[in-house]
Each structure stands twice: as C-alpha cells, then as structure tokens.
Design a protein that fits this description.
It is built from six helices and eleven strands. By secondary structure, it is an alpha+beta fold. Strands 6-5-4-3-2-1-11-10-9-8-7 form an eleven-stranded antiparallel sheet. Strand 10 and strand 11 (246-256) form a beta hairpin. The longest helix is centred in the N-terminal third of the chain and has 37 residues, at 2-38. The chain is globular. The chain starts with a helix and ends in a 24-residue tail after the last strand.
C-alpha cells in the first residue's frame, strides 16, 4: 500500500511536471512557429516565381483591378481598369478608365476591353467608331505584346512574365487586401519569359522583348499561401516613336475573389468595326 501511494505521488508529480513542461514548451513552440511564419519560405525564390502562373490556372478565375502609370517629360498619367479573368480559357473583360482630358473636358466614358488569345477587343475606343461596334487589334502586331497598349496589362501575361525570372529575393511577409502574402522582388527577362510561356503568350512576350527599351523587367510580386499572385507590379520602359522620348511605365495588377464567375463572350464578326480609327 505504501509503495502504491508513493508510486501515485511520484506519478502525480511527474504529471504536474509534464503539464508545466508542456505549457513552457507550448509557449516556446508558439514562438518558434511564429518565427517560421515570419521567416523566409521554403524553396528557391526564382523557382517559386517561375511557376506562379500555374497556380492561377489551378484557381480558374478571379476578379482583377489594374493600374497603368506612364511618365515622360515631367508628365504623369494613370489609367485604371477593373474586371474578371478566366485563366484556363485565357479570356478577360475589363472596364478601363482613361485620365481626364488635359483641356478639362468632361470625363470620358470607360472603354470596355475583351482580352483573348492573340486579340484585344475594345468598345468606345476611337473617334468615329459606332457605339455598338468593337475595334479588334491583333496583339501579334503590337511592339509591347499588349502589356501596355490596352491601358492595362493582361493578367495572365503579367503572370507569365515571371517565367523569365532571372534573380529574386524574399522581402518579407505582409498583407494585400486582407490576405497574408509573401513579398518577392526581382528581375525578369522577357526573352526568357517568351520561351517558357504558354503558346498564346510566346509571341506577344517575344515582341515585347524587342519593342521595349530593354528586355529586363524589374518587378515586385505578392503570393498568398497557395502560391497565387495577389498583386504584381512591373516596371517597363520604351521610347516614344514620335518624339523619341523615354517613357517609364509602372503596371500594377491586383487579383482577388478567386473562382469568381468569368463569363466572357467575344463579339461576332458583324459587330467588329472595319473602318479607320481616329488617333487620340
């Protein structure tokens, strides 16, 4: 009996010590877990970013907001857009708002843009175009690969630029629109991106590599815990063909509400304007 009582006392003391140790270790464990959360993620940043576009395809679709800032000769303008994108069908729809006329004219109507493989469709674009007609642009003919021309960067093309990542570093963890994200900064090469991109973006990215002032594209990108891009900012540069002035472009694409419906229908042939478009 005495031995049993001693055993129970010893066992009880062991249990108490065990609980205290668990609490202590639990606190330490929480600290270590938090340290892991705040520390750099596993995996080489270059390899992680080169596959970021694949995570968008897995997500299927999302809503998007875009901003295109252009600066030249002391003048800066910003073009904003908002819409949806289907990463599997490579189709998107945006409403793009042009900046106010420098002369102070009334605000312009938003341009509706449809993004499709090899083509950009625009409504309310260009003087003299009937209100019910679309303008179609073959993106293979654009020297910037439609990364700038439409006033917004195609979200999937923006992601595929990362396939040409040459160098990248993990900056830290933060939040974008309420989502916990990992911030990376690096340099991508458009020529390399065009070789590794999906078939629909190889031509446009290859054209951009030749059309921009440099094929090197600095970027900042924010990935969520599923590897999906939540925000990406590219910095492009090109030379204005008419005035031969350098133009700096900062393109920002925000992606959210993954899985959102993205029913994008392209216009019929009879709905496409075949006349000339006045320059603005």
């Amino acid at each position: 009996m005495a031995r049993r009582r001693q055993h129970r006392r010893t066992h009880g003391m062991t249990a108490v010590v065990g609980v205290v140790c668990c609490v202590g270790l639990g606190s330490a464990g929480c600290a270590r877990s938090d340290a892991v959360t705040q520390g750099p993620p596993a995996g080489d940043p270059v390899r992680v970013l080169r596959s970021a576009a694949d995570a968008l395809v897995d997500a299927g679709s999302s809503q998007t907001r875009t901003s295109l800032e252009m600066a030249t000769g002391g003048t800066r303008v910003t073009i904003r857009g908002e819409g949806v994108y289907d990463y599997r069908r490579r189709l998107g729809r945006l409403k793009v708002l042009l900046p106010q006329d420098p002369a102070g004219a009334a605000d312009r109507r938003p341009i509706t843009e449809l993004l499709a493989p090899g083509a950009l469709y625009m409504k309310n674009r260009g003087a003299g175009v009937p209100a019910d007609k679309w303008v179609r642009v073959d993106t293979a003919t654009l020297s910037d690969g439609n990364l700038v021309t439409g006033g917004a960067t195609d979200p999937f093309a923006a992601a595929e630029v990362l396939r040409g990542t040459r160098s990248a570093t993990f900056v830290g963890r933060t939040e974008v629109a309420g989502a916990r994200v990992r911030h990376y900064r690096g340099i991508a090469d458009l020529e390399a991106a065009s070789r590794e991109a999906s078939e629909v973006n190889r031509g446009p990215l290859g054209a951009a590599a030749k059309g921009f002032a440099t094929a090197r594209v600095p970027f900042d990108v924010y990935l969520d815990d599923e590897g999906r891009i939540r925000k990406i900012r590219h910095r492009f540069s090109f030379v204005n063909g008419e005035r031969q002035e350098p133009v700096a472009v900062a393109s920002t694409t925000l992606l959210y509400d993954f899985g959102a419906p993205a029913d994008v229908r392209l216009p019929e042939d009879e709905d496409i304007y075949a006349g000339r478009i006045a320059q603005e």
